[in-house]
Amino acid sequence: MRNNIIHAGADELTYEIREIVEFGEKLRAMGVPIVWENIGDPVAKGHLVPEWIKDAVRETVADDKSFGYSPTKGVLEAREFISKMRNGTGAVPIASDDILFFNGLGDAISIIYTYLNRGARVIGPNPAYPTHSSAEAAHAGLHHLSYNLNPHRNWLPDLDDLRNKVKYNPSISGILIINPDNPTGMVYPKKVLEEIIAIANEYDLFLISDEIYANIVYGDAPMVSLYEVAGNVPTIVMRGLSKEIPWPGSRCGWIEVYNRERDPVFARYVKTLVDAKMLEVCSTTLPQRVLPKIFSDTRYHDHLRNQSLQYKHRADAAYAILRDMPGVLAPKPAGAFYYSVVFDDCILSNRQTLAIADKKIALFIEGAVAGLPLDKRFVYYLMASSGICVVPLSGFNSELAGFRFTLLEPDDAIFEHTVRTLMEKIKEYLHS
């Protein structure tokens, strides 16, 4: 090329959750039946959308307005509905003009990081959700900055680590939390949120809270949204329809902006987000028009409660199998529908294997694992040996060696068999 057209952050754009599918498809073509535990799609796992929600969609589709453009910020009825839900609770107030719709939170994440000043960094949790970490790193043209979540403390954030990194890195302008967390399923206690807010106040930072799983919580502590405790800190809260309805194909997410007027720089940044969305014209109209009908239906609360109970049942069952297993740490999640397992330090090596009956597949795996991170090496052997596809924690930009699987399997017997197989394969691998 006449000029270098490659983006400075191109090498930071990774998404192991889907990238591992390519390897799984190769194994499936070689005759290995694959159990897909890599991606959080309830619909793909057989979860049914309630008929009354489908009726709301059918009714809305019948209205010709659902086929047209929406306003740039989103359908006013939807934004006013969200505003009313948030206000009157004693929390930070929000106006409908401070709500901006996107084509899913992936779209929102991309725009949020793309239009930050190049020198401004956002530090996020580690293990890191790759959509956030890749977009932030690509924006900066540098590796993602992160603070540690501690698996020995049920994945709670290391606040000393966060404070020190903020203190000694003046480029850090914002702090990201994912609540409930993906991939760990940790739910941030109110006290921890307040301590993060105190750090943001002290160093004049803004906050981002990705709360796509906010209505999937089943631990002992309640879910506390950041907008309930943000005080005067400029804050962006991210929500969406994809997980709880579930309707991932709707690609409907939104951000709620709090305390915009508290800081003129933050206010100008938010205007940039709106201007960037205006260049796209708008987000998809149909799900925005359906949203108030679904959220206002009295059956929705029962739907959410039943969902959370199902995931709690799965989390309890998996924890009962994995909790006392030598060589790994498996804290029980309290929200979302993922379970992360961490190998003990220095327990993995590049000499460990799993038995693979088919010699052709065994030879393929031996070549495929050369040079891989040790947890990804295990994941490849696991897939070839058992057909179970999980995601290595190294794929979440983490130095911890481990893997994430989902709690989405609707059949009790199949789910328990999958987790017990994981346990057996871990034992076999560590003793090989």
TrEMBL record:
Gene3D superfamilies: Aspartate Aminotransferase, domain 1, Type I PLP-dependent aspartate aminotransferase-like (Major domain). One of its GO terms (molecular function) is pyridoxal phosphate binding. The keyword Heme does not apply. Its EC number is 2.6.1.2. Its cofactor is pyridoxal 5'-phosphate. Residues 44-407 form the Aminotransferase class I/classII large domain. InterPro entries: Ala_Aminotransferase, Aminotransferase_I/II_large, PyrdxlP-dep_Trfase, PyrdxlP-dep_Trfase_major, PyrdxlP-dep_Trfase_small. Keywords: Aminotransferase, Pyridoxal phosphate, Transferase. It is an enzyme of class 2 (transferase). PANTHER family: GLUTAMATE-PYRUVATE AMINOTRANSFERASE ALAA (PTHR43488:SF2). Belongs to the class-I pyridoxal-phosphate-dependent aminotransferase family. This is alanine transaminase. It comes from Candidatus Nomurabacteria bacterium CG1_02_47_685.
